[in-house]
Design brief:
The structure is a homodimer. In chain A, helix 3 crosses helix 6. Chain A contains eleven helices and 28 strands. Chain A is an alpha+beta fold.
């Protein structure tokens, strides 16, 4: 049977300020209302059943993945949680081991969750060819004919046709521009897409040869409960470096569909329609004599430009980036600067997601804080109390169930509630529609850590659930 | 006696998005906590008494001017209100007529309110020289030796020394670059600063010759009550074009202090300190490999740049401008575009000023709106009621006096109030410290025009007082 192994643990920073450490690229909605992760799942429909679709991710992303995959009927148990990121080889190895225990002949479609693909039918045809080769015992990689001498991709050198695929001579890491130009001219070079197809058993055999320590540890895994025991002992290593650059069973299937790994703002700009002057505007934008300007906006502000050229503007409520289009690779460096400076704009958005919904700090002043809180249908926050603040709630849409020490009741829109300092309380959405609450906190200390949680539905591996 | 006539009616758009039609440049605090208007008043201390300081402005700016000049003890009656802008000649003529009725020998210091000047002592010395010449009956203008071939200033050609001033041959409008280069090389050319010193009587005599229609209408003005009668009949004309280009009584005093008319973002950038790479940052900014970038921020956001050069970034909560530094003159055009598109970002800021304080819309959603309201000491809003909305108020700092149909009471911080739809209510600050209220509006229609005002302290010529 075919299994999808979708890699969704990445913490990429290249789309900062749209992506944040706690809301990485794979969860972003690039075009329309579907995230890159959701699009990845949608693409394998017909090749893989939901019950055979696995998602491996970092434990801090569990609730986000769970809510994003809910509509695909993928069982919760198929969301595999890494205690911490160890790069791709351990993640894929773990899934190969767990799946091979269920199905010895399993064929794995290993797919990154943060790429962009057009022509889904061609994608499926390519994957079907790859499955044929995988069943013959090969480790199959999907390669793309370079369309420019890119320094942003790894390359694969092939050495002639074998049956329905190409033999692979070697894997090459991201080159400098000189090498990239050489590779680009040579018809034997392909871009490495990071999409791999192989039998779980074939992958485990190769691991035994080339990553014996990983293999030995995987032998100790009989269920997900064993992950935490072996994980700290594993080395962080990519599948490219650990297996693909060494194995002799590798073949390549050339792809015939549009693909980009969306490695930078400039790569993202490629997939958007442009006006006559090459400007991209996804929102409320005014350009005067500008060209090649790409505006990406997550705020409600008017973005205007005059006389600028080839610049990316990425606008969010708490952070703005203005970047030359030829320098978008440096966004990573900027994020490193923010870490060193102990800022928080690289970690979370102003609207912070929670397992039960989200909240946005609208304003903070001396002695007060104003939040807009959204509780998802049938979800509730923890039963909690605060030492240093009182809270005023106004229900502005939907119906909220409110529990305090004295009362339990359902508050309609336009009702308000006062929660004095120290009083136990709980906010819940008992309905099938979202509830929105304006919360005005008043007190001497208003940090997120002034919460005593007395009962919490979301204790499982995840960050603070408020 | 000396009189200051400070021109504060301009609606300049060159500093958009910092300046807005309803909050123009002269009211902006460029450096520190003093606005350009306030700095203008401060500069003439010692030359002119507060009782002889007049400010002529557009009627919509009355409360803003009043609050900005409060600390200078200038009588309210010295704030002269134009029913509408008619350029500088009618404004100056009106002040000359009104002041000449009080003091026939009045010497007027006519000063724009939106320029930037350093070396106040030298400024005063120059003005004192100008007053000497003015008393001899000359129309005196202050000129600056050009420091570059600017196309942003008007020029004045002089023709040799007469006593303590220079004779003026002619006034020249803003030139093209070729002409500007010629003027720059010729030692007979000065920049026109727009600062003029003359006897009220001398100005009126010249008006009689060169602007007879204006002069005739001014004869009908005996008090401020007469302004509205003549104003609609006046032609809109600048003093430069109407008088200075024609009169033969004009002389020039060269200035020896730093001055800029702050005609653009680029001119503003000149007066700020720069880092090693020529970047200016007045706030929370991260630059990576950028140079000559000027960030001006009125928001709370992180502004970051990568690899950009010679660009102005002006960031406000509801509008962002990213502009090449050589194109900052085009901001005017952008504002014209916004007018044509019927937008509102060129009119007001997200935080809107009111005679009683200010309010900021923090969030608007379907059926609700969240505002932060600040009421200045001893001020109150109108007694009002709403047809389509209820309001929830939470006092978050200070003490508010709240009046409803049923009660009158003073609410402390952390107290909340519910104002049901249709109920009369009034919000007041009875204390000497500002009061802040979070207002959550809930209703089917939440426009600013759903207010029935039953009593209002601020009915006088001004925009809606909420």
């Amino acid at each position: 049977m075919n299994y999808a192994v979708i890699l969704a643990g990445g913490v990429g920073s290249r789309f900062w300020p749209f992506s944040r450490e706690l809301e990485p690229k794979q969860f972003m909605k690039i075009l329309g209302e579907t995230s890159l992760l959701q699009a990845t799942i949608q693409r394998v429909k017909g090749l893989v059943n939901p019950a055979q679709t696995y998602i491996i991710t970092n434990s801090i992303y569990f609730y986000e993945v769970k809510s994003q995959v809910a509509k695909f009927r993928i069982p919760d148990k198929n969301i595999i949680l890494e205690p911490e990121g160890k790069n791709t080889a351990p993640a894929i190895g773990l899934c190969a081991k767990l799946i091979s225990q269920i199905d010895k002949n399993a064929v794995l479609l290993v797919l990154p969750s943060d790429h962009y693909i057009k022509n889904i039918n061609n994608f499926k045809q390519t994957l079907k060819k790859a499955i044929v080769s995988a069943k013959e015992g090969f480790l199959v990689t999907i390669g793309f004919k370079p369309t420019l001498p890119s320094t942003g991709y790894g390359y694969i050198k092939v050495n002639g046709k074998k049956n329905n695929h190409l033999g692979v001579e070697k894997f090459l890491e991201k080159p400098d521009l000189n090498k990239a130009r050489k590779y680009f001219k040579d018809p034997h070079f392909y871009w490495n897409s990071g999409m791999f197809i192989w039998k779980a058993s074939a992958f485990l055999e190769e691991s035994r040869k080339y990553l014996p320590k990983l293999y030995a540890n995987l032998q100790l895994v009989h269920s997900v409960n064993d992950i935490s025991k072996i994980w700290p002992k594993l080395e962080s290593i990519s599948v490219d470096y650990g297996i693909m650059e060494r194995s002799r069973r590798i073949v390549l299937i050339p792809a015939n569909f549009y693909w980009t790994d969306l490695g930078s703002w400039d790569a993202l700009a490629e997939i958007f329609p442009k006006d006559k002057k090459g400007n991209i505007s996804n929102k409320d934008v005014l350009h005067l004599d500008s060209q090649g300007v790409c505006v990406f906006s997550r705020g409600n502000r008017l973005v205007s430009t005059i006389g600028i050229k080839d610049i990316v503007i990425a606008d969010t409520p708490d952070a703005l980036l203005v970047c030359d289009r030829s320098k978008t690779q440096s966004v990573k460096k900027l994020v490193e600067m923010m870490k060193v400076l102990n800022r928080k704009e690289h970690l979370v958005h102003l609207t912070e997601k929670r397992p039960w919904g989200s909240f946005t700090v609208l304003q903070e002043g001396v002695g007060f804080k104003i939040k807009l809180i959204e509780v998802s249908p049938k979800k509730r926050l923890s039963l909690q109390r605060h030492k240093s603040r009182s809270e005023h709630w106004v229900v502005v849409s939907g119906k909220a169930k409110i529990t305090t020490e004295k009362h339990v009741w359902v508050a309609d829109k336009n009702r308000s509630v006062y929660i004095p300092m120290g009083m136990k309380h709980r906010l819940e959405n008992p309905t099938n529609l979202p509830v929105r609450i304006v919360e005005v906190q008043v007190g001497s200390y208003l940090g997120e850590d002034d919460i005593e949680r007395l009962d919490d539905d979301f204790k499982k591996e995840c960050r603070a659930s408020v």
